[in-house]
Amino acid sequence: MQYEFTIQVPPEVAAHQEKLKIGVAKKNGIPIDEIRHIQILKRSIDARQRAIKINLKIKVFVQEDFTDQPIKLPDYPNVSSASEVVIIGAGPAGLFAALRCIELGYKPIVLERGKDVRNRRRDLKAINRDHIVNEDSNYCFGEGGAGTYSDGKLYTRSKKRGDVQRILELLVGFGATDQILVEAHPHIGTNKLPGIIAAIREKIIETGGEIHFETRVIDLIIKNSEINGVTLHNKSTIATNKVILATGHSARDIFELLYQKKIEIEAKPFALGVRVEHSQQLIDQIQYKCDIRSPYLPPSPYSIVKQVDGRGIYSFCMCPGGVIAPCATSPGEVVTNGWSPSKRDQPTSNSGIVVELRLEDFKPFEKYGPLSGMHFQKSIEQQAWHIGGETQKVPAQRLVDLVDEKVSTNLPLTSYKPGLTSADMKSVFPEFIHKTLKYGFKEFNKSMKGYLTNEAVVHAPESRTSSPVRIPRDWKTLEHIQIKGLYPCGEGAGYAGGIISAAIDGEKCAEACIKTMKTK
Ligand code: FAD
User: Fold this and answer.
1) Quick check: 216 pLDDT over 80?
2) Is residue 511 part of a domain?
3) CA-CA distance, 322 to 349, in Å (whole number)?
4) Nearest CA residue ID for atom 25, ligand 1
5) What pLDDT score does 156 carry?
6) Residue 246's domain spans which residues?
7) pLDDT class for 180, splitting at 50, 70, 90?
8) Same domain for 88 and 235?
9) Ligand 1, closest atom to CA 499?
10) Residue 306 in 3-state DSSP?
11) Can you list the pairs that 476-482 forms with residues at least 24 positions away whose Cβ atoms lie under 8 Å?
12) How many domains in the chain?
């Protein structure tokens, strides 16, 4: 017999099958020797009280053995001679669009400007060590897209976006731990993601799909408001009337191209701010209300939202036990973001702390029309580059000094490898952003006592939170509102924010595109 329960237990009980059996037997009046196994279906941490509890949804096997049923991938058919769909970009949106095409019997041709996961690493080293930014291969561009060298958080704020469970199961099928199906806030980690991405690529190739690396699309060929093909960096062309455009939020050249070609795009509000680093121990102390974290608890994340004069300021993409990374995609700019290994075992934690932006904030850049937000974003990244010393060093300030409006006389070492330049954040950001950060951090300290500490350091800017542009599409067909056969997809088009939602949108675009096609 199998029974499902929800139960709240101390962390050390949740971590041990035998202790859990004792607790479940006692609470539910089941003789302990009849419990053969307890399967954990969902796990979340309740850290609101000093005595931290783990919420578990469990399946109890009573007088019945448990057999593990590994997650299986769909039966992907061979599509080598099937009708083709061109997909631009091998981020989560592009890769999951490709997999869905194959599942439905169509052949994806994926065009990716960056390199495969292995070769991409060299370019990441070059940014960190030599301050060299390769415009096609960096933390945002390359196989797996912006999510490959990340914390790999796998949750989406909006459950309405689609079938999250399906994407998680596919990730498990391609090699992610099955614990991502259990955790309320799952993550994969930067050391595991490249292997999963490589397994997806191998499946695409094995089934007859194509992936072309170091292949940048520089033009869209359009005739009579219908896509006819794409032009590549070497001026060769691919004829096609089905293109999924999944180029991400950092492909500024694609936004420029669409604007020049008078293909409709819109400015979109986004958020921008800094990345703040604390010691993980301090965050654990604040969140778990303890001196030393229990060995049964993971390094703690945090999530915080406040308002300053009616403007939102919030934590974004928090990485417990993680590292701040240089995420510029062009020379002459600096950008930060964060990653963590699967164990989240680095001594520092970091989080984007970003200020909500509105369309009216982009007014000084209105001459750029729908690209005004993008130019606003770019101007701050370039300003930070100048102030940082025109390398990949970033302007940095102790958190307390930011609030007290003092330049830091010295800075501690942080996880950000290219280095720091002491600077006043007032010189990096427009006044309204600086003010919101200053008062926002004071508010944070009211909810998270100890957060506002001299040891914490802000790094500027965190500016690629979501796309500054939306590429409008028909809500039903998902085609661009003017161009037949063009499917704006994923984060860059403004329809996703994060790995999971981008993957979901990739699948949706593939389905919508295929609906209009005939099998060969
Ligand atoms: P992208 O991942 O941006 O992929 C777009 C792809 O298109 C890129 O590979 C790019 O090289 C390619 N491309 C661009 N232009 C062209 C062109 N002209 N021709 C050919 N190819 C082109 N999200 C989470 O959910 N959890 C996290 O923990 C997380 N951490 C992050 C950490 C870092 C360091 C970064 C940078 C991002 C992180 N994100 C995280 C965000 C997440 O990675 C993105 O939301 C997601 O990757 C968006 O997917 P996408 O496929 O829409 O676009």
Assistant:
1) yes
2) yes
3) 5
4) 498
5) 75
6) 84-267+468-515
7) very high
8) yes
9) 25
10) strand
11) 477/512, 477/516, 478/508, 478/509, 478/512, 478/513, 479/512, 480/263, 480/264, 481/264, 482/225, 482/263, 482/264
12) 3
Residues near ligand 1 (Cβ within 6 A): 88-94, 111-114, 139-142, 145-147, 150-153, 216-217, 246-248, 251, 254, 317, 325, 327, 337, 339, 490-492, 496-500, 502
Strands 243-245 vs 84-88: parallel, antiparallel or unpaired: parallel
The pair of three-digit structure tokens given for residue 279, joined into one six-digit string? 């010691």
Strand-pair partners of 107 = 84
| Residue owning tokens 């003092």 | 406
Q: pLDDT by residue (tens digit) across 254-269?
A: 999 999 999 999 999 9
Beta-strand pair 271-279/266-267 = unpaired
Q: How far is the CA of 164 from the centre of ligand 1 (A)?
A: 18
Q: Whose CA is nearest to atom 35 of ligand 1?
A: 146
Token pair for 300: 């703690």
Cα of 207 vs centre of ligand 1, distance in Å, is 24
CATH label of the domain that carries residue 216: 3.50.50.60
Q: What is the pTM of this model?
A: 0.97
Distance 43 CA to ligand 1 centre (A): 28
Ligand 1 pocket test: pick from 113, 121, 244, 258 the residue with the most ligand atoms within 8 Å of its Cβ.
113
How many Cβ atoms from other residues are within 10 Å of residue 308's Cβ? 19
Q: Which amino acid is present at 12?
A: E
- The minimum-distance atom of ligand 1 relative to the CA of 247 is 7
In angstroms, the CA 506 to CA 92 distance is 7
Mean pLDDT of the chain: 96
Structure-token pair, residue 360: 């009216």
Q: Which atom in ligand 1 lies closest to the alpha carbon of residue 143?
A: 9
User: Which residue reads 């590292």 in tokens?
Assistant: 323
Task: Provide the token pair at 511.
Answer: 């389905």
Are residues 215 and 199 part of one domain? yes
- Which of 149, 150, 261, 504 is the best mutation target for the ligand 1 pocket, counting ligand atoms within 8 Å of the beta carbon and taking the most? 150
Same domain assignment for residues 433 and 481? no
Question: Is the ipTM value over 0.95, yes or no?
Answer: yes
Amino acid symbol at 239? A
DSSP 8-state secondary structure symbol assigned to residue 300: P
